[in-house]
Amino acid sequence: MTSLTAYRAQWLGNVRGDLLAGLVVALALIPEAIAFSIIAGVDPKIGLYASFSIAVITAIAGGRPGMISAATAATAVLMVTLVRDYGLQYLLAATVLAGLLQIGMGMLKLGNLMRFVSRSVMTGFVNALAILIFMAQLPELIGVPGLTYVMVAAGLAIIYLFPRLTRAVPSPLVCIVVLTVVSLSFGLDVRTVGDMGELPSTLPVFLIPDIPLNLDTLMIILPYSAAVAVVGLLESLMTAQIVDELTDTPSDKNQECIGQGMANTVTGFMGGMAGCAMIGQSVINVKSGGRGRLSCFAAGVLLLFMIVVLGDLVAQIPMPALVAIMIMVSVGTFSWSSILNLRTHPRSSSVVMLATVVSVVYTHNLAIGVLVGVLLSGIFFAWKIAQLFHVRSEISEDGRHRTYMIEGQLFFASADDFMAAFNFREVLETVTIDVSRAHIWDISSVAALDMAVLKFRREGATVEIIGLNEASETIVDQLAEHNKPGAADKLMAH
User: Fold this and answer.
1) Fold of 388-493
2) How confident is the model at residue 492 (pLDDT cuts 50, 70, 90)?
3) Among residues of the chain, what percentage have pLDDT more than 90?
4) 18-41 pLDDT, tens per residue?
5) Rounded CA gap, 442 and 471, in Å?
6) Under a CB-based contact definition with an 8 Å cutoff, are residues 32 and 196 in contact?
């Protein structure tokens, strides 16, 4: 729980930097929100209202200061079918339900699951997003006049060279202002923000989705809401992790889940579609000097102000300026060191990273990519730990007693090796299984231990298990069958 003093500092600790960064983000959000609305098949104002609402509410209730949340492509693509088949009102209801599901996930502390996402998956996630951000700019770079390339190049020059003169003003903001002035002064024929779609001229209003409130409606929207909730939180938590590293500050992942849920719930009642954190905009914010909650709040408020009050002026901003900013984000987001590390890092880590990148880029679904990465990480980890498992044995001088010494982690991946180490056909009077250098983890390992004991008993040997540590003893006492009546029949029945 954030203290009141810390919360106040998150708002007022970097006022000038947050306001300037928020302005840059707001300008960059406008064409993206319009584009995401088009992806979802709804009016541009749906995405713009959503970006305002989500940004403002997550700034207040979220757990990651300095992170930008708004309407996103990751959630927009999940809504296409719902909008096409049932219409806008069902989209708004699905947004509300997705928010409620996210609040529930936050209260269940599901944000703690981020600890199971490996460094390789994170790197793959970041690289994939960098590629997707760049690919999203290609429509603005293909089949366009040569002047567009000149302006993009000029924008990149301003972005990278202006900080050498001064860092008092964010270079992306300078890029937007300079290219807009040049475009208007010389009447340059390039695409503008206004060409992306019509900007709304009124403030959003509170409304209740006009749909039947019954079980049939719930069955229609629940699959979409669940998908949006999971994908949205996944991207938000991954982005929060990245911003943690960029700013070297911690964040409350569970509070972020709740904050995102509150934002989507309110947004659905304000005529907006569901969204989540945006890595591209978050990087823009951080690179522009944004660190606190005020940057995200300012981005949302200034976005609404510009589209409602300054809509005619904003519509004149040339798209090459925003393309240049997003290329900067793409280049800055990509982990270039990961390419060099392919030769030095363990092969399994490189495979996980590359699989995450390929899965995300191929499917355009962040959840699938991360799931693939996490599954591969788990499989490789289990394989590595299983390779550290060994069984040695010693026979007594009279040949009647054999001691098996187990070393390593006994779990589902090493259970087969455990069983293969025993010679059940050997004629013995007593067998000792020494697990003092081992740890028993799960039901698979307990079942293997049971089976080993019973097989030796079936051959007439007396079996003794020694060296159980406290944790292993607890799970064996709870789950083991070999010391219970009818153990052989129960195990054979399985």
Assistant:
1) Transcription Regulator spoIIAA (3.30.750)
2) low
3) 45
4) 999 999 999 888 888 887 887 788
5) 11
6) no
Per-residue confidence band for 489, with pLDDT thresholds at 50, 70 and 90: low
What's the token pair of residue 421? 């180490």
Q: What would the pLDDT profile of 100-117 be if each residue is shown by its tens digit?
A: 999 999 999 888 877 778
Token duo for residue 20: 């300037």
Domain boundaries, the chain: 4-335, 388-493
